[in-house]
Design goal:
By secondary structure, the protein is α+β, with helices and mostly antiparallel strands. It has three domains: about 290 residues, no CATH class; about 120 residues, no CATH class; about 60 residues, Arc Repressor Mutant, subunit A (Orthogonal Bundle), CATH 1.10.10. It has 15 helices and 16 strands. Strands 1, 2, 6, 7, 10, 11, 12, 13 and 14 form a nine-stranded mixed beta sheet that branches. It binds adenosine-5'-diphosphate and magnesium ion (MG). Adenosine-5'-diphosphate binds next to strand 2, strand 10 and strand 11.
Length: about 500
């Protein structure tokens, strides 16, 4: 299925030790909570942070006699995710029971897809930076239910259970062991998150646990067969992924080089110490006694449904990144930042739309770059400082595009534009209105500029003499004085030109 052929356009680093060289091999199982108003097999709501057990139906609580019915919206979401990851959609898939006992799993089993998942093999392209790109293979995606949550710290001798999360749809996205460094693993997780958010199939909120990864790590000498892997469970950030891999790589190399063998086990990452510790070994692994769920018929999809979803896919980040660079000549760094989030991209493209409407469908590369600078430079800095989200900004895309045009056509200078920006930010008024109300238009009237120059020269006769006897560095001083005289509003090119003439004329 990997149609790109090229897997990596660079050679990943290895760990060089005194006698050996080690390559790290990483594969991930990512749990992504499906964006859906109701659960995978019940109509209960899924709002995060609700009152405990306020969103648990009899089905989620596994009351006897309850029958699960698959939520077709969640199925559509899984199909969409599969298509977004260039994957095969299986026209027939099945649900299985994974049996185990846990207090927050009232049925005694989790409904999952073990034997035939809804999504088969796919692939995804990941950019590490402007020059380094790799693609990795997706093994499959299956749908399953989330479990509830136990609380052991609310009461001295009781545990509590909240079933709000029980039954929420999860997609488990399983990769092939195709990653070769912690950097690649972190970049993949970020890319996956971006794609899911573009698709609207997972909100990617890692702090709330909507996206969490089990990271499988092994080491081997380059070219050797795969080493024994360790699975580090439930990592919820790219940074922790890197830390866990870093720790594991050295732990495993250490074991092998001192003559030992790596145990295949499940480990937990402690974000405070940055270390992993053993949770259970392969020998303690449970037998889940998987069996087809007799309550659920096979999930049969038809091609029309898949095609309809395919046609509803948005432009994905990779394409957008390429298009922004190609169509507007944006540098990689700008384009990558803009394409990294669907809302950011939508805002920027709305600026371009405003611009294109004003100018008969054309947006020059100059203006696209100017808009990008004001957007990711100035607006982002203001948002960060005020701790606001983009959608809370009083500066709209139309404002930003208008501001750039005011600079471009010479109505205001770049310096005054910063003040205009500040006023638009706090008032929400349009830039042209702010400029008009505050009298901030650039002075392009030559007689006004000449008058200001005459005044500055008159008041600084000593400096004029110094300048004329060769101290040319003083030119900047004169420019500064003229700008001051005009409240910063004089057209800088005109000031430069007139001053030069005036001063050299003597
Ligand atoms: P299981 O189903 O028993 O958990 P899988 O073979 O499906 O095992 O692999 C689970 C995950 O582990 C996958 O993401 C896969 O890429 C990864 N993986 C498998 N073998 C290795 C290995 N030797 N090193 C690192 N990751 C691996
Ligand atoms: Mg597994």
């Amino acid at each position: 299925m990997n149609t790109t052929g090229l897997k990596r356009n660079y050679t990943p680093d290895t760990y060089k030790r005194e006698h050996n060289e080690w390559e790290v091999v990483i594969g991930m199982e990512v749990h992504a909570q499906v964006v859906s108003q109701s659960k995978l097999f019940s109509g209960a709501r899924t709002v995060f942070g609700s009152e405990p057990n306020s969103q648990a139906s009899f089905i989620d609580a596994a009351f006897p006699g309850m029958l699960p019915v698959v939520n077709s919206f969640c199925v559509d979401q899984a199909i969409k995710t599969g298509l977004g990851l260039n994957a095969v959609i299986n026209l027939e898939s099945r649900f299985d029971r994974k049996n185990y006992f846990y207090p927050d799993l009232p049925a005694g089993y989790q409904i999952s897809q073990f034997y035939s998942p809804i999504v088969g093999p796919g692939w995804v392209n990941v950019h590490l930076d402007e020059l380094r790109t790799f693609s990795l293979r997706i093994n499959h995606i299956h749908l399953e239910q989330d479990a509830g949550k136990s609380f052991h710290d609310q009461h001295p001798d009781k545990s509590y259970i909240d079933l709000n999360r029980a039954g929420i749809a999860l997609m488990e996205i399983v990769t092939e062991p195709d990653m070769r460094s912690k950097e690649e693993a972190a970049a993949f997780l970020k890319t996956l998150r971006t794609i899911l958010r573009y698709l609207g199939t997972c909100d990617g909120n890692m702090e709330e646990g909507s996206l969490r990864a089990d990271v499988n790590i092994s080491v081997r000498q380059p070219g050797a067969t795969l080493g024994t892997r360790v699975e580090v469970k439930n990592i919820n950030s790219s940074r922790f992924t890197e830390q866990a891999i870093e720790f594991e790589v050295f732990r495993q190399i250490e074991i092998i080089e001192s003559g030992g063998r790596v145990d295949q086990e499940t480990r937990l990452f402690d974000s405070i110490s940055g270390k992993t510790r053993s949770m259970r070994s392969k020998e303690d692994a449970q037998d889940y006694r998987y069996m087809p769920d007799p309550d659920l018929p096979p999930l049969i999809l038809n091609l029309d449904r898949i095609e309809r979803i395919q046609n509803s896919l948005p432009e994905l980040p990779d394409m957008k990144l390429e298009r922004l660079q190609k169509d507007y000549g944006l540098p990689y760094h700008d384009a990558a930042l803009i394409a990294s989030d669907r809302e950011i991209a939508a805002y920027y493209e709305e600026c371009l739309n405003t611009e294109s409407k004003k100018h008969e469908g054309k947006v020059s590369g100059d203006k696209a770059k100017m808009i990008a600078n004001w957007f990711i430079g100035d607006l982002f800095a203001y948002l960060n400082k005020a701790n606001l989200e983009l959608k809370e900004s009083k500066i709209t895309p139309a404002h930003l595009s208008e501001l750039v045009n005011l600079i471009y056509n010479g109505t205001i200078s770049g310096k005054i534009a910063k003040e205009v920006f500040d006023l638009v930010w706090s008032s929400g008024e349009s830039p042209s209105k702010v400029v008009k109300n505050q009298g901030m238009q650039q002075i392009t009237d030559s007689s006004a500029i000449e008058a200001a120059i005459a005044k500055v020269i008159e008041q600084n006769q000593d400096k004029v003499q110094e300048y004329q006897s060769g101290k040319e560095k003083l030119f900047g001083f004169f420019v500064g004085q003229v700008m001051k005289e005009t409240d910063g509003k004089a057209n800088p090119q005109m000031v430069n030109e007139f001053l030069k003439n005036k001063l050299s004329a003597g």
